[in-house]
Amino acid sequence: MRIDVGAPYRERFGNPYAVIHRADAVIGCDGVKSAVRQALIGDEPRVTGHVVYRAVVDVENMPKDLQINAPVVWAGPHCHLVHYPLRGGRQYNLVVTFHSREKEEWGVREGSKDEVLSYFDGIHPLPHQMLDRPTSWKHWTTADRDPVERWSFGRATLLGDSAHPMTQYLAQGACQALEDAVTLGAAVAAADGDFEAAFKRYEAAHIPRTACVLYSAREMGRIYHAKGVERLVRSSLWVGRTQEQFHEALAWLHGWRAEDCLKGVV
């Protein structure tokens, strides 16, 4: 059964049941598959073909020689593994990434231990021993989008993964969303109620930075998963670097300051 509450209904009853929401502005923060972005820009996510598996294990189930109080990365051709402590060392987060042999669709589902083991057969025995420990895995197929020239249209704009979904290789997805929020807040506060002007200033300040982070994340994925001569070059460059050189290389990324978020942007 269907009841039409269109024009004849409104004419008879005087429209007392209609609810209309009028907002001063719209900020789309609705993720990789953003409905707001679809309405404003209309592009599609780029499925990377890289799959991420994540599991959490109690410290009692973590191999003793891998109970390290720091993030540890094991990199190999077309794959890498990361583990680090959670909850004050009571648990460990295990994250494995590989290039899928299948045609993947973006999304999250229950994972398979057999699939994980099939991609990491033959790796070094030290990290391999932890792959049997989880009782369950979560499977993510990752996606990003190419940067665009604008996020804002009138009094509507985008923030976070709606604006610039990126791969996980620099661990910057949530960080860039927070930077977005700070920059947008500063732009709105300085605009005296002019949302269109605020949104233009916000995107002028942060689109170039997020585009650089996004492309750098893609490149870091290639570096992590290098093979052959590329792997040898990568390893020789990293082994020879001092801590000061690593810090200097990260200064553009980790040196961002909230108080300077609109610096140089009119």
Note down, in words, how this protein is organized.
The chain has 266 residues and is of the alpha+beta class. The chain folds into two domains: 26-45 and 146-260, 3-Layer(bba) Sandwich (FAD/NAD(P)-binding domain); 47-144, D-Amino Acid Oxidase, Chain A, domain 2, CATH 3.30.9.30. It contains nine helices and eight strands. The strands form two sheets. The chain has a six-stranded antiparallel beta sheet with strand order 3-4-5-2-7-6, with no helix packed on it. Strands 1-8 form a two-stranded parallel sheet. Helix 5 (173-189) runs antiparallel to helix 6 (195-224). The chain is globular. The mean pLDDT is 91.
- Helix tally equals 9
Provide the number of structural domains. Answer: 2
Q: Determine the CATH topology of the largest domain.
A: FAD/NAD(P)-binding domain
CATH class of the largest domain: Alpha Beta
Helix content: 25-40%
* Inertia-based shape: globular
Pfam family, one: FAD_binding_3
EC number: 1.14.13.24
Cofactor: FAD
Enzyme class: oxidoreductase
